[in-house]
User: Fold these one by one.
Assistant:
Number 1:
Amino acid sequence: MKAGARILIVEDEALIAMLLEEMLTDLGYELAGTAATLAQALELAAATELDGAILDLSLGGEKSLPVADALAARGIPYMFASGYGRSGLEEPYAGRALLRKPFDFDELEAALKAL
């Protein structure tokens, strides 16, 4: 994904969301929105103009998989962000891009370019 793309952040930890917002801005991406709950994320995924998304796998005890499905239905690329690694991804999501927490600036940049 190229700089300038509009990215949706789905993250329930405020500090991580703010860090992602800052990193994305520094990398030249635009913020399409930020959601901290599954309901907010589903609303933004359905109605917002965006080019990609970063989804925290676990949102307050709920998985963000319905958001992934909504994005996939619209043809919008996304990656999961998780501290659990690949073991937290069930089929059919196991092959999706994963940004392992904690991540740094270079890891985020590489993951976005690969997306």
Number 2:
Amino acid sequence: MRDVTLDGGNGVRLSGLLAEPPGGRAPRAVVVALHGSGIRAGYFDNRARPGLSLLDLGARLGYTVLAPDRPGYGASAAVLPDGQDLAGQTATLGAALADFAGRRPVGAGFFLLAHSAGGRLALSTAATGSPPAPLIGLDISGLGSVFAVEEDELPGAGAPGAWRRHWGALRLYPPVAFRLGRRLVAPVPVVEAGETLLWPGTYPALAARVRVPVRFTFAEQEEWWRSDEEAVRALLAPLAAPRAVVDRLPDAGHNISLGWAARTYHLRALAFLEECLLTREAAPPGRPADA
């Protein structure tokens, strides 16, 4: 794993983390890991215990894993102190992925694995078709379309929200996770925070333009988003995706990739990527791979 910097266009540089298959092997695909609000790309590089890092696991399984700091975080925070709206983030990420694809092999294409607010960016990216290489699919955790809390309880710029709603029970995390997690915390850009309230209204139109497979995961102790049958129907109904899956992860809180359940979730997400690749490889001649 190493640090990387990507050109997001318009003078914006995105910092991030990169892990590639060992031995100089070409990647089967690139997993682009998009973090949530108030935290940086290291969210996906859990070092509390061996085996919990998505970057390590993905590279060992033959994938390149690219975890950029989203616009307004990391290296771009000085240039974008208020962050960017969703359309701006989508354009910046698209330019950054084009920069990456121009310098490194991407295999079958990009697979977006996103958490919480990063899921909004993943869905917007799929809806606009902005990646320069084929988009294989989306795997999103910690994001729904129906709030489980009142609007004034939501986290935002200068208002982190209830600690328990982010984490769930303490037993779900290695004890050292909270100490290591402190170095990942970052201010939520004000523009991004404001768009959180708009998401339930924004989601349907974006979902109607998503035409790649999508998997949503809700942690057992997810407390920001509803995941009951009615809420799941509302989540899936607008999607134009050829396949949409909703999974529930036991013994996990909202910050899945920082907890004991991180490896379980990452393996399930990468298994979904394998399914997406299999569908493409096994598609009958003349039939769209995602049909």
